[in-house]
């Protein structure tokens, strides 16, 4: 199973989701490939935001080796599941797809927790550490659901 998590700049939310999901699937021995990207290329090559690094570290997850990148058209073929942090990211990715198969890989990361409610993970970029902690809590819940649903579908691959 190959999963891509996507936010706007790939320095706050999606690095947290990548690190969190990666740590969970590794602990379970699932062998999934997890990556992250942004719909905008504003921070390409940069480390995650210092507050994301801090919150992840406090929770036992090291994301310092991650580097921001912009999503590419190839990602829609490479990944089995593409998880957007918010409706704007989802809609931007819909515009990039060329087939319904690609479009059907995209969903909001919170959809499994709150089905059919279009719940977005808020962007903590301009706020304090509390916003990053709230994002971590939301993503922790979402990642558990992703594993619960897709581990059985993927045959734990």
Task: Write a structural description.
The protein has 157 residues and is of the alpha/beta class. It has one domain (2-153): 3-Layer(aba) Sandwich (Rossmann fold). It has six helices and four strands, in the order E-H-E-H-H-E-H-H-E-H.
Any descriptors?
12% strand, alpha/beta, Rossmann fold, 157 residues, single chain, four-stranded parallel β-sheet
SSE inventory with pairings:
Elements lengths: L1 E6 L5 H16 L4 E6 L11 H9 L16 H4 L2 E4 L2 H10 L3 H4 L2 E3 L20 H25 L4
Parallel strand pairs: 1-2, 1-3, 3-4
Helix pairs in contact: 1-2, 1-6, 2-6
**Largest β-sheet summary:** 4 strands, parallel
| CATH architecture classification | 3-Layer(aba) Sandwich
Overall mean pLDDT stands at 96
The helix/strand class is alpha/beta
How many strands appear in the DSSP assignment?
Answer: 4
Helix content: 40-55%
CATH superfamily: Response regulator
Rg, alpha carbons: 14 Å
Sum this structure up briefly.
With 157 residues, the chain is of the alpha/beta class. The chain has helices at 13-28, 50-58, 75-78, 87-96, 100-103, 129-153; strands spanning 2-7, 33-38, 81-84, 106-108. 43% of the residues lie in helices and 12% in strands.
């Amino acid at each position: 199973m190959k999963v891509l998590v996507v936010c706007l700049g790939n320095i706050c939310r999606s690095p947290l989701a990548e690190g969190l999901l990666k740590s969970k699937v590794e602990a379970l021995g699932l062998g999934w490939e997890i990556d992250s990207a942004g719909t905008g290329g504003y921070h390409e090559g940069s480390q995650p935001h210092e507050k994301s690094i801090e919150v992840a570290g406090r929770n036992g997850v090291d994301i310092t080796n991650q580097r921001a990148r912009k999503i590419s058209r190839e990602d829609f073929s490479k990944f089995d599941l593409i998880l957007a942090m918010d409706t704007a990211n989802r809609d931007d990715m819909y515009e990039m797809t060329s087939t319904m198969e690609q479009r059907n890989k995209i969903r909001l990361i919170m959809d499994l927790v709150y089905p059919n409610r279009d719940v977005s993970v808020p962007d903590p970029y301009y706020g304090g550490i509390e916003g990053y902690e709230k994002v971590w809590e939301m993503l922790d819940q979402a990642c558990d659901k992703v594993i619960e649903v897709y581990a059985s579908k993927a045959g734990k691959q």
